[in-house]
């Protein structure tokens, strides 16, 4: 099978968990519109834990390995700064899409890395695609609950999630065709994204995942990080 087809297939399957997670959130809202706060907080915390593992285990170490140390630090800081500005604009317009932004910041560079990896290690690329799928599922669930206000049809948001998932195959092809040998460029994208994710985690996601009535959400964060750790250990 051609690597280009592999790239489209794997990134597409990995990205479909975003609208799938959103669909599950919509179904849960219909069945139980007053879902316990602890459960929602735990799901958000799980997604935050998975994103933290992506920053700590994949994006920073893999990206920084291909860059001079000073440049890596500057790009990481720039990522945080840029998404501080983006978050500020969202807040001024009444938006609340921090988890969605963080999910995309995780998904896009990982899809590029997935495509680049197909050149050297196709077997590990399949495993990476599975881990991206598993990470995106709870993140898509929590992001849908965050973005959908109920004022517009849910399918509008779900259709937007499908469109976002379609970015994956495009990014994977870019990684396969242009970035497989351009390690510094891919590394710069990964480190920049890591800075943005870390900002969004501490500014928006972690505070919203906290519950005064229960410590269960904190365990959700541990479980999310454990998922990322398992995937990392299986791919090294």
TrEMBL record:
Transmembrane segments: 6-27, 39-60, 66-86, 156-178, 184-202, 214-234
Protein species of origin: Leisingera caerulea
UniProt protein name: Divalent cation transporter
Keyword annotations: Membrane, Transmembrane, Transmembrane helix
Taxonomic lineage: Bacteria, Pseudomonadati, Pseudomonadota, Alphaproteobacteria, Rhodobacterales
Keyword Transmembrane helix: yes
Domain of life: Bacteria
């Amino acid at each position: 099978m051609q690597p280009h087809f592999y790239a489209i297939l794997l990134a597409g399957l990995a990205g479909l968990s975003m609208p799938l997670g959103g669909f599950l959130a919509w179904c849960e809202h219909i069945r139980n519109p007053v879902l316990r706060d602890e459960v929602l907080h735990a799901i958000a915390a799980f997604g935050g834990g998975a994103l933290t593992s992506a920053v700590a285990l994949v994006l920073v170490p893999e990206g920084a390995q291909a860059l001079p140390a000073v440049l890596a630090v500057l790009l990481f800081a720039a990522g945080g700064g840029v998404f501080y500005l983006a978050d500020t604009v969202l807040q001024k317009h009444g938006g609340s899409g921090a988890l969605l932004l963080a999910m995309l910041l995780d998904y896009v560079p990982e899809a590029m890395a997935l495509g680049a990896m197909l050149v050297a290690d196709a077997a590990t690329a399949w495993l990476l695609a599975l881990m991206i799928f598993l990470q995106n599922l709870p993140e898509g669930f929590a992001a849908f609950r965050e973005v959908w206000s109920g004022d517009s049809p849910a399918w509008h948001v779900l259709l937007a999630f499908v469109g976002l998932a379609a970015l994956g195959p495009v990014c994977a092809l870019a990684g396969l065709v242009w970035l497989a040998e351009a390690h510094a460029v891919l590394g710069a994208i990964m480190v920049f994204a890591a800075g943005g994710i870390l900002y969004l985690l501490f500014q928006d996601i972690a505070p919203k995942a906290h519950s005064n009535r229960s410590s269960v959400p904190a365990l959700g964060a541990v479980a999310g990080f454990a998922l990322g750790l398992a995937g990392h250990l299986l791919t090294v």
